[in-house]
DNA sequence: GATGAATGAGCTTTCATTCAT
DNA sequence: TATGAATGAAAGCTCATTCAT
């Protein structure tokens, strides 16, 4: 048995025991991916407790036995899934950051807009919900999520900020902290309220406005003047 | 065909049917409170799905039947609990705001510090996790939480900001948005990372530093000069 | 607000979704039959509400999980059982009708006797009790019971009556109504009283007497003279 | 404790222990009637298992404690109720029989019609369902029902038949059996089918037709010619 | 006598996991 | 390796009955 259903304390999933990518042959990987695809649909819709292994098996088109050939238990499947999903979600945000032939304010506004839109996507929103909800049970998960999603965004932006500071366009002591502030400011109003399922204007115009204010605020805080 | 346990759509709990603050007699209230206390311990530790009604009964020292005499179903108990908890959690934050004979920067720094400390408390942290996780299933919950916790903090701060702007100490177009930005900035680094269970310096000094930076940032954005 | 266990209205079990007589493989059918056998014992003894799924599982020698692998819910198991039982119960009655080289009165007396004996069997009696008791909750059940049991008997007898009328041995306007009257007359005294658990002579002789009177009555009502 | 919830064998309620009518003071009787009225509504709508003591208490406007002051257990309350209800239900049927200044056929047709209408009433129908369903568990109940309802009707009609036979209008060997046959014939088609919740024409015309056929049939079987 | 809060066994149903084929 | 039938613990919830007030 892998795990008790309702663990009294922490539910530790040692991700180091996951079959790592390099040692898997192709056929195995294909089936594994098939399972992960099915799992993604369900976990991101219904959460961890709301998804049953039978559902995953059906959705993925494999038997329950096969499921357990590839993943030792539900928690491990979940971990593997979040690992896979987190990686791809915020990619377009920091790709945006690299297109940096524009002035600071404009770039930041575009990044802010991309960030807001990404965070509002149903998948991302659900991912955030799940990670925050299950972070205590799956501490490694949050770590993975941070490293592959938020963390990457922050360090990418921090690098960009340091670069612009070097050029004299910004004046920044701690680029990482500044980047973190920037991402927090992005979440003002729309993202934050949407997380609480509160009614809020999520129109294009509203998003652009928050993005603009965020960019302007950042420039006020860290601009060269 | 057969009754589904997990409804596909929303699980609406009409909180207006909760025994409200009418004149419940003392005995009734005492037992009710006893149940809520037990429920708090468990729900705030293990989340909604992770807590069973049997556990709550045992923890509260009552029988399952008694549980259901006071609350129609698990969802309603949960709702009532969150309602009760949310109310008390952020109270000290906005009480801090009213002690306003100090200069802006100092007041804001104290508010930021109180906010950070509150959000870092295990209960608050768990409350945030649960609300975000279950907001889809319990839309009214998030609403309550917002109205009694975050919402109150924001509008209290917004009022203070408007007041200081009237005095000429701040220059602010949209006091509510400014307040929302302030609270987002409070969550930079420590709170945010703690939510993801990432290692982060949560020392007094670290908290004071983030509070100071937050206050300074706000003043840069909205100060009279 | 919360999910009610007992719906106020009808409990519809769409029997068309029951695994029908398709080509179920042998193993599946064997286990299914094993469950139905256990269910028959209990439901026919204790009725629908008086039988629990745990009891059925124990009686059938399977786990509760297995029960639910074969039947979606208690109502469906019950429906499937009644469907299976109803079919076999009255078969020997209408088989009796086909042996028709005898004169009318003798044939009818034999049919009446078979009918009375069948209706007095503990299983049939209990089946009648259950169907009548649960007809409101399971309208399709009564329908099935009628179509496979009483209905078949009536239409078989009605055909026989029409045939004899064509031969000039009977004079009948409405063969179906005549058949219905015949079956009601069969239930006079012994069957009726037994249904109410009243003391009544159920001896062979008594049965033969009622059968004879029934046959004679029918001939008086519909005989050629 | 009065009775186990799910009795393994028979559920005997010794009705001789019911507080008999003469020894009860007025106040007590009033409350008792109040309870029985509430119980009638529920038991006749939802059956024995489908009715809870809490519901009865609420419907009757008394506390559960009071319920148990007047009736030792659910089974006894149910017994007392059926006893009370059965008595009143078929009264109008045999009252019809006494108005006997008409010719046989007409009287019988009126009695048949009254009988059919009575049996089709929702209360009577439900009473029949309940008695038949619970007869095994409550053997005394069915006895009571027979003695106060069906039995009275039969013996009243049998007396009338004997009287008319003495007048030479009928030729009957066994008036009781003839009466039983008459009541069975009344149940042909409409009543029988309605018991199985099958669709059937329950119009005034249809009822009159069955009543007429029943009367004619009886006259054919037992008329003076 | 009347109340209704409290009890706890029992109900239907779900689901992670195993294992014979 | 893949299957899916089988398991059984545990879930949410009900209800006849008791008893302190």
TrEMBL record, chains A, B, C, D:
<keyword id="KW-0805">Transcription regulation</keyword>
<dbReference type="Pfam" id="PF00440">
    <property type="entry name" value="TetR_N"/>
</dbReference>
<dbReference type="Pfam" id="PF14246">
    <property type="entry name" value="TetR_C_7"/>
</dbReference>
<dbReference type="InterPro" id="IPR009057">
    <property type="entry name" value="Homeodomain-like_sf"/>
</dbReference>
<keyword id="KW-0804">Transcription</keyword>
<dbReference type="InterPro" id="IPR050109">
    <property type="entry name" value="HTH-type_TetR-like_transc_reg"/>
</dbReference>
<feature type="DNA-binding region" description="H-T-H motif">
    <location>
        <begin position="52"/>
        <end position="71"/>
    </location>
</feature>
<protein>
    <submittedName>
        <fullName>TetR family transcriptional regulator</fullName>
    </submittedName>
</protein>
<feature type="domain" description="HTH tetR-type">
    <location>
        <begin position="29"/>
        <end position="89"/>
    </location>
</feature>
<dbReference type="InterPro" id="IPR039536">
    <property type="entry name" value="TetR_C_Proteobacteria"/>
</dbReference>
<dbReference type="InterPro" id="IPR036271">
    <property type="entry name" value="Tet_transcr_reg_TetR-rel_C_sf"/>
</dbReference>
<keyword id="KW-0238">DNA-binding</keyword>
<dbReference type="InterPro" id="IPR001647">
    <property type="entry name" value="HTH_TetR"/>
</dbReference>
<dbReference type="GO" id="GO:0003700">
    <property type="term" value="F:DNA-binding transcription factor activity"/>
</dbReference>
<dbReference type="GO" id="GO:0000976">
    <property type="term" value="F:transcription cis-regulatory region binding"/>
</dbReference>
